[in-house]
Amino acid sequence: MRSYRGILLALFATGPAQAQEVSVSEGSELYRTYCWQCHGFEATGDGPMAEMLAIRTPDLTKLAGENGGVFPIDRIAEQIDGRSQLLAHGGEMPIFGAVFETDQQIAVALPSGQPMMVGLPLANLLAFLESIQSE
Q: Structure pTM?
């Protein structure tokens, strides 16, 4: 099984629910639901909506390569959930924070080693994105 450096520090559930495991396949499904329209089926930035945006849609397979070989999990999580805003089509990138909110929180390890709490669906999407990084 491929190891995803930085994705999983520990599993936590906020409440009596059992801890869940991060799933790359569930992250892939979330990508196919919410992200492909702009980022493309192969996550290379060539989705059908990309040409309508005010900025170039990033190639999500090169995030680690453009960050010194380290997947920038904190920056990506913050752009997806709205903690960090990104201009796109004359406004912000759609904020999916509410979509990924859940009581089941996962601590993901940042490149610094510090934990960052995110909902399980966002952890799944981050695991998928890390899994598609090109060498």
A: 0.80
